[in-house]
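Anyone have tokens for Glycosyl transferase? Sequence:
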Amino acid sequence: MVYSRLAIILTIGFWGTYVITTIIRQYFKGPNTFPFVMQSLGYLLIVTLLTFSALMYLLARQGALHRFSKHVRVPRAEIDRYFEENQPTVTVLIPSYNEEPGVVRKTLLSAALQEYPHLRIVLLVDDPPYPADSATLARLNATRQLTTEITELFAEPRQVCESKLVEFFRDQASSSHVSLAVAQELAELYAWAANWLEQFGSKEQKDDHVGEFFVKDVVGSLSEELRRVHEALMASCSEEVELPVARVSQLYQRLTWIFNAELDVFERKKFASLSHEPNKAMNLNSYIGLMGRTFKQINTPDGPVLMPASGFRSGETVSFPDSEFVLTLDADSILRSGYCLRLVYFMQQPDHARVAVVQTPYSSFRGAATRIERIAGATTDIQHILHQGMTYYNATFWVGANAIIRKSALEDIGETEWVGGFEIRRFIQDRTVIEDTESSVDLAKHNWTLFNYPERLSYSATPPDFGSLIVQRRRWANGGLIILPKLWSLVRDRKRQGNAMSKAEIWLRLNYLASIAWASFGLIFLLAYPIDGRLLSPFVLLAALPYFIAMASDLKYSGYKRSDVFRIYGFNLILLPVNLAGVLKSMQQALSARKIPFARTPKVKERTVSPMLYVISPFIVIGVSLFTLWQGTVQHNWGNAAFAAFNATTAAWALVEFIGIKNTFVDIWLSVLNWLYVPVKKKQSDQEIEPAARVGWQAILYHGDAEGRLPESAVDHLALTERTSYPEEKEVMTS
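Reply: yep, here.
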């Protein structure tokens, strides 16, 4: 912590020294040309912004060190005692789109193995519900069956543990302490549960590092914990200590909590009354908007719709249980067993009544097979530290891979609109592709706070190749500039309310939203523009040195090599065009007021092909750096030459190690082929056109179309209608 404070002081000191000894000094040395003045101001601005980002890294890191040093785990007995008397409900929502069933299965299992009473897990499948391709349909059906398979898998341990709990309550109703025989029976039950988990883990596939992590760190760690309880109970019996009934009751209940999760599947695209916008936010919003309400399902030519049951006197209805908390979890994320208990316990403390979101910023799975996944995972693990520090300054942002959210806070920021006569509710904003970040500002505007729990309890997949990483990082870089006006509005509102935000909070939030933009443009300027030698100074390097030393230390702390700091620098160089593309998309949306489509990160077993622009760009970065090196050498501008040589070396190494020369030329060749060959559109036959002209009495009665033709919106749902609506009239319609 002392070194961290020293790093902050040195960064500010070296930057100030550079401004005084280089920039200001040049103006006093004599007359300067207009181009030199403009170049000096531009260079000073870029250096200042990059130094500011480095300073925010060090500041957040300092906050994280403070929090880590003061964090004390709540004893398990205290947590068990609390949840024996208080059992707030939690609904786990797992949005899924085009995911491999094996990936989703691990996520569902990690959620189902949470030691929490009355946990309800809903898999929100967002795939088209009726695909024509047989392989796609088979994968979708396998995903739908996962909840049933897991319920059946846990049936035996759930029944055994619940029956033992009932038996204990029956026999120990009036006792204050339990006999040694009862304690020994409980110990044997814990041993049985541990053995069951070990056998279950031994049957799980461990074909990659994610599978190994799930078996070892989720199933295995839970089994080991249960076995330690077994050993402790046996030790108490050997010492002939009679345990209190209350504690034994809590231990019995703990076993039932592990296996009693309720699982379900929901597909919003089956219902014409729900939003079908293709993004994760509206998938979550659709289900959250139904929670705590009862509906009647009505079949229409557009497909089934859900109407509030209050408008109908009779008939079957469908209800969606409400809960106090909502846990959102990406379909490629995995939770440790104590996630729900510890985070909900934290939310239930009186001092945290205004905490809307609590999360553990996700970490990466260790043991990645590719170098690029390992280095990308390293940047994720460093972000875990920085997010912890941001909480120290009350500048927390919601990281959407996992979070426990107070549902009343979502209702506080919810918005309602009517589309086509149906109510569409938005709790999580989908205006940008970083919906969690914008919702963080919305919650802060309503005086809610967000919190990062200082433990690593959640893990998420990292893209294993450059092509899929492009999609993820381009999405992450898109949206921050659009949210900036909301941040300024938040600052003004807080000041008007007499609860002004601290400078550290404002700076950290500003850096989080805008640093990718100024860093991308700034690096392009430094790479491509030959800086006048009079503006260069070793103090610029010295101002950046504490940042790189601190990052190297954080990498070592997170289980990586200190030298990975150079690999991350090269990694960021080849990602520079990707980040810039995301920033430009933000500007495009700001100018056009048109929403940018949500691009999901591809998750395929084979390598994702990269667009030609992004595989050529690293060559351009290397070429520009080599040209600057040559130019600096010729002009004896050794500062520029050294910087260019470093950039060319690290970028070339990153190109070879992270993308690969072979993959680069393959992706370029495939991009050229895709550009040369245009797929021929199949001419529609009369039989294919016929459904659009088909006369349907249901469509006339529902839409009121005077010409008796199905409206265009109804044609899109024709296959859905024929499968789900009016089965007795299907033959009449086709004839």
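The chain has 29 helices and 15 strands.
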